[in-house]
Amino acid sequence: MSGDPFIYCRGEFVRQSQAVIPAADHGYLFGMGLFETFRTHNGIPFLPDRHLERLRRGMAAFRIDAQRGRFTHPERGVRALREVAGELLKLNEMEEAVLRLTVSAGEAGAGLPPGLAYERPNELVFIRPVPPPPPPEGVAVRLLETPRLPGEFFPRGKTAGYANSLRAWFELREEGGAEGEGILLTAEGRVSEGVFSNIFWVIGGRLFTPGLETHALPGVTRGLVLELAREAAIPVEEGSYSVEDLRRAEAVFLTNAARGIVAVSRLNCGRGELLSEFDTGSSRIFNLLETEYRARVRRESSGGGDKRPS
User: Fold this and answer.
1) Measured between alpha carbons, how far is 57 from 279 in angstroms, rounded to an integer?
2) Which pLDDT value is given to residue 310?
3) What's the fold here for domain 139-300?
4) pTM value?
5) Where in the chain is the domain with CATH 3.20.10.10?
6) Which of 267, 247, 45 lies closest to 143 in space, CA to CA?
7) DSSP state letters, 75-111
8) Which of 1, 111, 131, 278 is most buried, with most CB under 10 Å away?
9) How many other C-beta atoms can be found within 10 angstroms of the C-beta atom of residue 27?
10) Alpha carbon distance 278, 267 (integer Å)
11) Given a cut of 70, is residue 304 above it in pLDDT?
12) Which CATH class is domain 6-128?
C-alpha cells in the first residue's frame, strides 16, 4: 500500500490526496456525519449488515436520508460495500484491510440547514492496513483521566464528533507509556470502555461488561460477543461497575472491529503504576469466546453469512 492510497469518494476511486468534498458540507461545518469501521477477511467486510444497521440508526438521528446513499440503502447497501471493498483491495494491491465508511450530511450552505432533513449525503471509504496481532500475553491498558462523555443520541453512534476519544488518545500517548489502550470512566467514576474498544471481564464464571448507560458504544463486535456468550450458556451481566470491580477480574479482554478480541494482561493507573495483572490466556471463557468468534469469521468469509437468531 502506498502512502497515498486509492479511496472511494463520492462515486469515484481517487487518490486520497485528490479527494474533495464541498466546503459547505455540514459534516465538516457542524459535525453532522457518522462512520463505521470494517475488517475484511478473505477480502469480504465482516458483519456488514450489523455495521450498516447501526449507521442507519445514527443517520436517522441526524436526519440524513439513508435511502439516498449507495452503502446505506437498506436493500442494496451490503452488496455495494462488498463491491467497493473488492475494488479498493485490488487498486491498492492488498489482500486484507481495514475500511472506514464515512457518511456526511452533504452540502447545505454555510448556515443552518434550510430544510428538515439532509437529502444529499456524501460517502467516502478509506483503507488502511490490518493492525499487527497483539502480543501472545495480551496488551496492557491504562486508566485515563479523560472522562467518557454522553453522545449526541442514545445509544451512542460513531459520529464525526470524535473529540472525546481523540482527547483520550492524546492523553494515553503523551505519557509515553507502553499501554496498548486506555480505559475511560464516566464522570461518576464508573468503567465505560476503551478509547477505541469495548471492555469485558470474567469473575467466577460470569462475563461482565459496562452497560450502555455508561456511555459505552454499542459496538458491533461487542454485540457479537454477547450473543456468542449467551449461545454458550455463559452467564452475562451488563451494568455499572467500579474500577475495583475491574481489578478483581480473573480475565479481561477488549473488542473492536479492526482487531476482534484482544486479551488484556495488566491494568495500570494514570501514572503507569500496576493495579492488577490478568492471566486472560488461561481463562476458559475467554478461550471459548475467541474460538467461537474465529469460527464465525471463517463462516462469513467463506460465504456462510451472518445468521442471527430471530
Assistant:
1) 38
2) 31
3) D-amino Acid Aminotransferase; Chain A, domain 2 (3.20.10)
4) 0.95
5) 139-300
6) 267
7) TTHHHHHHHHHHHHHHHTT-SS-EEEEEEE--B--SS
8) 278
9) 27
10) 8
11) no
12) alpha beta
The answer to whether residues 47 and 224 touch, using CB atoms and an 8 Å cutoff, is: yes
- Relative orientation angle of helices 77-91 and 48-61, to the nearest 10 degrees: 110
Rounded CA gap, 192 and 242, in Å?
10
> Model confidence over 127-179: pLDDT tens digits?
999 999 999 899 999 999 999 999 999 999 999 999 999 999 999 998 766 67
| Alpha helices by DSSP H, 198-267 | 220-231, 243-247
Residue pair 20/122 in contact by the 8 Å Cβ criterion:
no
- The pair phi, psi for residue 142, each rounded to 5°, is -130, 135
Mark out the alpha helices in the chain (DSSP H runs). 26-30, 48-61, 77-91, 163-174, 220-231, 243-247, 284-301
pLDDT tens, position by position, 66-89:
999 999 999 999 999 999 999 999
**Percent of the chain topping pLDDT 90:** 92
